[in-house]
Amino acid sequence: MVKSLSAILASLVLLLGAALFEWFYVGDQFDSFKEEVETLALKAEAEEANIEDAKAVQSSWERRKEKLHVWIPHNDIARIDEYLAEAVRLVGEKQYAFAVSKLEIILHLTECLPDTYRPAIENIL
Amino acid sequence: MVLVTIRTAIIFIVLLIIMRLMGKRQIGEMQPFELVITLLIAELACIPMADVSIPLLYGIISVLTIFVLHEIMTLLDLKLKPLKSFISGKPSVVVNKNGIDDYQLKRNNLDVSDLIESLRTAGYFSLDAVDYALYEANGTFSALPKQDYEQMQTSLPIVMIDNGKYDQKNLEITGLEQSFFDGILKEQNVKNVKDVLVLTADGTGKIYLQVKKHKFSTFNVAYPGGKSW
Prior knowledge:
Low-confidence stretches of chain B: none
Helix content of chain A: over 70%
Radius of gyration of chain A: 18 Å
Structural class of chain B: alpha+beta
Strand order of the largest sheet of chain B: 6-5-7-8-9
Oligomer: heterodimer
Largest sheet of chain B: 5 strands, antiparallel
Number of helices of chain B: 9
Number of helices of chain A: 5
Number of strands of chain B: 9
Order of helices and strands of chain A: HHHHH
Order of helices and strands of chain B: HHHHEEHHEEHEEHHEEE
């Protein structure tokens, strides 16, 4: 009885701990990344962004995604990868209007992806 | 992570309810919740293993959730009697001194032929060889034989009427006519064959007859042309 209760409690603590960590960590990673993308998008809109700025955001994302792979399905990460790679290329080619549209998609993804991991009814069912 | 835990718990509860509703037929020597765990755990472990796009942690979290649910179910099973019957079910007495309990068979999605099969597997070939027979909560079959049951099993009883219908194949095997049994039913004041739960005949002429919602009876008849098997 005591052994079972301890095992249940220990497992629940682990599950709860993992859930809370995921909640804050994934949210925090996407929030920080969103700020970087927003800055790049503003620069691109003002036609002031250059390839170094875009590559800096991409490198930052590469670092983050290594850790995010542990927590979220890799297909979701791949969606941001694809749009970001295109945005970097477009900024490099100074096609700012197209680059901004790609960055807007990334911004949308950074908002909606963390929501798909939250314990809401629509995600459970 | 919370999603994986909640979804695993929901699937577990739904599967457990389905297994309980399916009755004893689907269970084999495991409690329903143990069977559900066995079904789930292999799948939950395999999916993240085979699909590299899913974090391995998802599989670990699911298995850990199953472990917690297993421990909780085991505790409830041991400590709370009312919940025990809900989680694991109760034994069903399908044969008593009045004969076959059709209601209990139906409750467990079983029929008379399933019962006869279980009896034969347990070594009892005649329906009147046992005083009591029951399906345990884990699906295993137990029977309490009559004291002199071995002397009752001198010939193999064959089912002639099963749940209101003649078994044409068995009639052919024995070479007996349907009209012969119609005559027996008439003698026993059974108006319609549909009222018969089971009628078996063995090679010595012993008939086991149980009319639905009535106590069984056994009697001896002589087969036409002195047939025996």
